[in-house]
Model the fold of this input.
Amino acid sequence: MNLVFKKETFRDDFTFKNSPEHVRRFPFPFHEDKYMYTVNIEPHTPGPVNSVFEFPIDVDEHYVSEMEDRALVLKDDPLRCQALPHMQLAEWDLVELLMVSMSEHYPEHFTLTRDGDKWHWINRPLGIDQQFTFGDTATLPYPPMEYITRQCQGDFCLIDQRDGNLWMDAGIVTTQADWSLDFDIGMNFMEWHGPVPLAHEAGVFDRALKFLMNLQLGKPVRRLNWTMSINPRLDTSPENFHKWGSDRMTVTPENIGEKVHLRVELQGLWRLPRSNAIVFSIRCYLISMNELVSVPKWARRMPRVLKNLPPELIDYKGLSRYRQMTIDWLSRFDDGAPTSPGGQPD
Amino acid sequence: MSMNLMSGSTEIPVRVADIVQVSERVKRFRFEPVAGGSMPVFSAGAHVVVSMNIGSRRARNPYSLMGSVTDLSAYEISVLKTVDSRGGSVFLHDSVKIGDQLTVSTPVNLFPVEQRGRKFILIAGGIGITPMIAMAEQLTAQKLPFELHYAYRNDQAGAYADTLKARYGHLVHLYIDSRDERIPLDALLKNQPLGTHLYVCGPGGMINWVLESGRKAGWPEENLHSERFLAPPSGKPFSVVLERSKKTVTVGEHESILEAIEASGVEPPYLCRGGACGQCLTCVVSCDGTLEHNDHYLAPEERDGNQKIMICVSRIKGSNLVLDL
Done:
């Protein structure tokens, strides 16, 4: 895909929009007309050309503007990026993973030259040209994880594995669906998943933990998660709830198409080679209801999924105030015809 | 979660670049990637599974990676020749020549260096020295304090003892059984600074002794780490019915259930092949005898429940086992 980086905002005047090509590549997460919790993990192997799964790390038309939004979040609140001291090796692992993947798959935008531990990184969209020594934090303008994740879309958590559990011991989290790294840092897998309803009873987290502890080098996995957001706001953090919480009150039948967004997280998990830690990436994709109904299959399926959600999930995802209004609005686009299996457009 | 998601592992074709007789019964093998370039980055404590075709049989043995985690031109393993084994080590010692091709899996680390540790005590018995060689390298590179205690049978058996002594000097302590030298474990376990982590690798009896002594000395479980070199024990042959695959296989005297199943073309998931990681955990549908749990993964109540079995090392006393595979 020939990438043209858009100049747009995820706050204040909210000028974010998807181009028609980007609407079609949106990772629509519903494979059928209803939604159920499952351990929906699959190998993170290359997907169709132009899909968000084509490459391990997806760079899209929103790249430059998302990085600007991240810089604004970090300026206001440096605690969005934290790393416990024992995670430094994992930070370097992440530098390698992201630089290698981005330069291999987007050579026109990123170049990495390596001569032993002397590395040279060029990021053309952001105008960065950096020579540094791999493993030597003093040779970068930021700590390693912060340095590279200021240049890569998506939130990243570095997870340590020890004592039969996984620990959230580092991360950069600025595009989150209402959770806080500052609150969760140092917690283990069961602790940070504590608030999720229904899934504990289904044993989902016990199985997922066992699975992730055996995650293999070179065999990353992914899953999709979803919620909904009012306005294309990347930073829906608990820290800033006072700025966005009341957005829910502004939804009216007239503005649903532009205000209500489906928010999908492409979550990736990689075993890191030097540290034996795991990187958990959470890449947020947004699509307005106006954009979504331009794909007839999604226009039919979306209201059906919303109708059949368990009450606990409606509450947990914060949809209560505008769900029915959204179903009513979307139902105009649902002619009742059957939908094909899978999430991709017909 | 799909079954085949983690089944097998990513295999790398390698060429045997060098074979060195290190001690009486230990040979070191150097594996270079057939495709050229570098081997994947690994961390100290990691192992690979080496696949070998022995006659019509495919053997897969796990071996710890040794050497420097920064030299990725090749992987190096050291193999102890065990005559009563199921053939893997004898094959590597007697049949594999420089230039031969084998495959190794991508590295798996079930024995990683705890990055929060302030000090490290490494205890090795015999061939259990191999992961410790990589650990000493990594700890040195990370500027973390360690001491290595290495016990072996006799003067001829101390693989790498001289090399380690030369490289690390007073950090290395050698104990030779035939000279009645013993690791002064009780003294070692006393008075260690807060944040000390102990790593032990060697024969089962030694590991039990070290861990038990550590617990008795009041060490937290979280600071005691071990890796066992557990080969699948042999026993009388029996048959296994794979209910979902609709196949019946015979497990030979010196074969594991996992190997017999793989030979039939079914590929259950595995990682360590040594009863440690839990990846090949399989549900038992029925068994006409008793399960012999040889793993160190299942909890006691799971063993007693007789509904789960680790097919890489465990067997049955009986004639027929039906598995949910």
In short: The interface with chain B takes residues 39, 41-43, 86-90, 96, 160-163, 207, 210-211, 214, 216-219, 221, 273-276 of chain A (CB under 8 Å). Strands of chain A lie at 42-43, 81-83, 110-115, 118-123, 128-133, 155-162, 165-172, 221-230, 260-271, 278-288.
